[in-house]
């Protein structure tokens, strides 16, 4: 039996937890009860769960504990069977609230599972609840009006990022084993950067948005926040796959993504940058992270070259498409935050939107052409370290948008192009807050960046966890 004091298991990788379950050293029920106890203790200060599904999680865990006890051949079980997870509150889980971070929708109950949720359930993971998001997923910090702000377990004065801030905060704090998120401009990679985790934004079409379909011309993707690259790859295997009617789709990978993390790569051509126009050079801490990984890559024998990047032409069309997401939600503007009301006003008519889509597609072709010469790009995840909770609160919307763009600049280009990207931690800054880098792959080439990230992860060996009081 698990001792009440033995809580180190909550910080073990999800795959290791699943092995303990299959080896019958711990039951899904014991694990769920441990996580629920931690949620009860720490969620009031972290604000990472909007809804805790204790009753359904315990019921599911009991069923899976019985299933394990009766199963003689465990080889057919999912690699993450019995592992507790959480779903971001932009996605529907049947019979659970779905608010999209809008206080007026707190009592709204979903009547169906999103396709990605169905896949997660079918693989035997246990859903602990719904994690906090910035309102409508629009901002890179998680401070939705009507909810307590979500905080970073490394330092409660700081944000865990957004919009998947609740997922990252919960995972970093040991309140779940692995988490679902989505990324429309850095909303997985940014929180992973802020909280010392792995964040995977897959290729466009890799993970379905069924049954509701796609918004904003495919810039957003369902993905994973995980403790390790292998954990993330395992959940990405589960989440991936076409569902009838998807507007975008990809062929299944030649080998599972989890297997890809163990593959030996050929010599790669890798481009890197720690400066991006119009912002210029990243903060020294973020530049140092890139330099650290450049050295690791060189020791692996890959060819690595510094390249210039200028995202200036992308900012306007991307902003127009991003802003249209607020108006397309169909929620009365008076129910939204002042920032989101202002963002909605940026959105004009259908003609301007289609012009922006046209411009973004042309620019995206130019960006993807970089990969005619490079297999992978290495960039900062964000341009400067984590901000404090409420740091932008007294700014005008125009000032806030400028601050956001200057912070998240390395991320949105890959939402525009639909390419896969993975954020990995590299250490802690002078404030003992995590920092890291991201790797971007060719279209549909998750396997390459997962394998490279796994090798870098082993070399960095970042295994610190926050201490909560």
Order of helices and strands: HHEHEHEHEHEEHHEEEHEHHHEHHEEH
C-alpha geometry: globular
- For the secondary structure, the number of strands is 13
Specify the number of helices: 15
CATH class: Alpha Beta
Q: Oligomerization state of this entry?
A: single chain
Q: Could you characterize what this model shows?
A:
With 469 residues, the protein is an alpha/beta fold. It has one domain (8-460): Alpha-Beta Complex (Amidase signature (AS) enzymes), CATH 3.90.1300. The protein has helices spanning 14-22, 28-46, 54-70, 115-122, 165-172, 189-195, 229-239, 257-260, 284-299, 312-328, 338-346, 350-368, 397-408, 412-417, 446-460; strands spanning 49-52, 84-88, 126-131, 178-183, 198-201, 221-226, 269-272, 275-276, 280-281, 303-306, 376-380, 421-428, 434-441. It has an 11-stranded mixed sheet, sandwiched between helices. A hairpin with a 3-residue loop joins strand 8 and strand 9 (280-281). Helix 10 packs across helix 11. The longest helix is centred in the N-terminal third of the chain and has 19 residues, at 28-46.
Would you kindly provide a brief summary of this structure?
This protein is of the alpha/beta class.
Give the SSE map.
Elements: H1 14-22, H2 28-46, E1 49-52, H3 54-70, E2 84-88, H4 115-122, E3 126-131, H5 165-172, E4 178-183, H6 189-195, E5 198-201, E6 221-226, H7 229-239, H8 257-260, E7 269-272, E8 275-276, E9 280-281, H9 284-299, E10 303-306, H10 312-328, H11 338-346, H12 350-368, E11 376-380, H13 397-408, H14 412-417, E12 421-428, E13 434-441, H15 446-460
Parallel strand pairs: 2-3, 2-4, 7-10, 7-11
Antiparallel strand pairs: 1-3, 4-6, 5-6, 5-12, 8-9, 11-13, 12-13
Helix pairs in contact: 2-3, 5-6, 10-11, 10-12
């Amino acid at each position: 039996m698990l001792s009440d004091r033995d809580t180190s298991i909550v910080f073990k990788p999800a795959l290791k937890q699943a092995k303990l379950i299959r080896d019958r050293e711990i039951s899904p029920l014991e694990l769920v009860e441990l996580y629920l106890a931690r949620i009860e203790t720490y969620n009031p200060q972290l604000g990472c769960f909007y809804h805790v599904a204790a009753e359904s999680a315990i019921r599911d865990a009991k069923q899976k504990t019985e299933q394990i006890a009766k199963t003689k051949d465990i080889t057919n079980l999912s690699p993450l069977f019995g592992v507790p997870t959480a779903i971001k509150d932009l996605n529907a889980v049947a019979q659970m609230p779905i608010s999209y971070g809008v206080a007026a929708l707190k009592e709204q109950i979903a009547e169906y599972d999103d396709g990605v949720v169905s896949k997660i359930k079918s693989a035997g993971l246990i859903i602990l609840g719904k994690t906090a998001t910035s309102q409508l997923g629009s901002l890179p910090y998680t401070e939705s009006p009507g909810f307590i702000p979500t905080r970073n377990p490394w330092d409660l004065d700081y944000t865990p990022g957004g919009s998947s801030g609740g997922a990252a905060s919960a995972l970093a704090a040991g309140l779940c084993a692995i988490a679902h998120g989505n990324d429309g401009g850095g909303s997985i990679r940014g929180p992973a950067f802020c909280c010392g985790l792995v964040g995977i934004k897959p290729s466009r079409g890799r993970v379905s948005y069924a049954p509701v379909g796609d918004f904003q011309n495919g810039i957003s993707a369902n993905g994973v926040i995980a403790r390790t690259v292998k954990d993330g790859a395992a959940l990405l295997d589960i989440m991936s796959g076409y569902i009838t009617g998807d507007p975008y789709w990809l062929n299944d990978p030649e080998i599972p993504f989890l297997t890809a993390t163990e593959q030996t790569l050929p010599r790669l051509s890798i481009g890197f940058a720690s400066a991006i126009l119009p912002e210029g050079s990243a903060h020294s801490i973020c530049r140092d992270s890139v330099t650290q990984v450049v050295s690791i890559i060189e020791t692996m024998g890959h060819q690595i070259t510094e390249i210039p990047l200028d995202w200036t032409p992308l900012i306007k069309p991307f902003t127009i498409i991003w802003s249209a997401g607020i108006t397309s939600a169909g929620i009365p503007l008076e129910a939204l935050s002042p920032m989101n009301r202002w963002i909605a006003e940026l959105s004009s008519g259908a003609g301007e939107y289609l012009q922006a889509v046209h411009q973004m597609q042309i620019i995206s072709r130019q960006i993807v052409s970089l990969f005619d010469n490079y297999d992978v790009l290495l960039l900062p995840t964000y341009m400067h370290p984590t901000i404090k909770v409420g740091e932008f609160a007294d700014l005008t919307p125009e000032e806030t948008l400028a601050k956001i763009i200057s912070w998240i600049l390395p991320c949105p280009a890959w939402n525009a192009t639909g390419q896969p990207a993975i954020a990995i931690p590299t250490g802690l800054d002078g404030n003992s807050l995590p920092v890291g880098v991201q790797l971007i792959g060719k279209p549909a080439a998750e396997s390459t960046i997962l394998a490279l990230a796994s090798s870098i992860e082993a070399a960095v060996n970042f295994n610190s966890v926050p201490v909560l009081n």
